[in-house]
Write a structure and sequence with these properties.
By secondary structure, the chain is an alpha/beta fold. It contains 13 helices and seven strands. The protein is globular, with a radius of gyration of 21 Å.
Length: 338
């Protein structure tokens, strides 16, 4: 019975996104608003807008509401928008997102990092006098946060020029000197073996096209006996299946147009993760069993993050009987030790 309901819901979502795909050229603003509503309701908790707690009821009601909204909205006239590029490389895309957050003064990530590390079981004094690598640092927001935690040296590595510029600017404004930034691929790090006491790699490797090459580099530069924090996208379930379908539609809608629509409705800067998911060129979904077998084969001890907050999928792991059907393997956060 449950599987029939899940299959039915998957089918309804698929039909909805097919409809939105057809309307992407004629009514792009309707598509952006609809996708935003669908995406936020894929999560079991929304920190900004009150939502239904029952996962099946919340998602099914959202789909039904959107079917009516699209039908009514697309009956209205719409202006033709001039053609714009819908192709972005990863660095350009994230550069735009970091500038967006910088302009809205949302790049101070020390409180976010502190909470994440505490939930992961770390004593914050652990990072004092350590040499730390922020692997795929983006804007350098966490690189700087580690420096503020007392790291001897906090190093940020990324390929994005805009993000690295922001990182250096933020460090200068904060008068922080125990940081360094390097332009480099995370698949070929410019450091010797066993160079770092701790590696932080959050939401990066699944955008490279070679997750396990990145993991091998992480292992190589991590000192023996040292730890790392890794976050990767999981796979399966309504959540991840729907994300894949949504990405295909946004190939027809320019990024700048999408951001303008979302700004108009007041979407918070921290919610630009939606836009990241829609437009980033490469998004891999990692199989949990394959990942854990890799850890074992490469003699890395691992512990899956469990102490999740409401906005993280892991929060529902012991609360939703049909977690796998809705969220697949969830999000894959690990503390590993070499």
């Amino acid at each position: 019975m449950v599987q029939k309901k899940i299959n039915f819901l998957n089918s309804k979502i698929s039909d909805l996104i097919k409809l939105l795909n057809k309307k992407a050229k004629s009514h792009p603003y309707i598509v952006v608003l609809s996708m935003h509503e669908l995406f936020r309701n894929l999560y079991p908790h929304d920190p900004y807008i009150k939502t239904e707690k029952n996962n099946f009821k919340r998602i099914s009601t959202t789909v039904e509401n959107l079917e009516n909204f699209i039908k009514s909205g697309c009956a209205l006239g719409a202006y033709k928008n001039p053609p714009q590029s819908t192709k972005y490389n990863t660095q350009d895309l994230f550069g735009k997102l970091w500038i967006e957050r910088f302009n809205k003064k949302k790049l101070d990530s020390l409180p976010v990092l502190k909470e994440l590390l505490k939930r992961s079981g770390f004593d914050l004094t652990f990072f004092k006098n350590k040499k730390i690598l922020d692997m795929g640092c983006g804007s350098g927001r966490f690189t700087i946060a580690f420096a503020k935690l007392g790291a001897k040296l906090s190093v940020g590595v990324d390929l994005g020029d805009e993000g690295l510029k922001l990182g250096k600017l933020l460090a200068k404004k904060s008068k922080i000197k125990n940081v360094k930034f390097y332009k480099s691929s995370v698949l070929k790090l410019p450091f010797k073996d066993n160079s770092f006491d701790f590696v932080f790699c959050k939401g990066v490797l699944h955008h490279t096209g070679n997750t396990y090459k990145g993991l091998s580099e992480l292992k190589r530069i991590l000192k023996k006996g040292s730890k790392a924090f890794i976050y990767l996208y999981g796979s399966g379930g309504i959540f991840w299946k729907t994300r894949k379908l949504m990405r295909k539609v946004f190939k027809k809608i320019p990024y700048n147009y999408c951001i303008k629509v979302l700004d108009t409705v007041g979407m918070p800067a921290r919610r630009t993760i939606f836009v990241d998911s829609w437009y980033v060129p490469i998004e891999e979904h990692v199989d949990q069993n394959t990942l854990e077998k890799w850890f074992t084969k490469n003699t890395m001890n691992f512990k899956k993050y469990k102490n999740a907050k409401k906005t993280e999928l892991e929060y529902m792991e012991n609360k939703e009987k049909y977690f796998k059907e809705f969220f697949g393997t969830g999000e894959l956060r690990y503390i590993v030790k070499k």
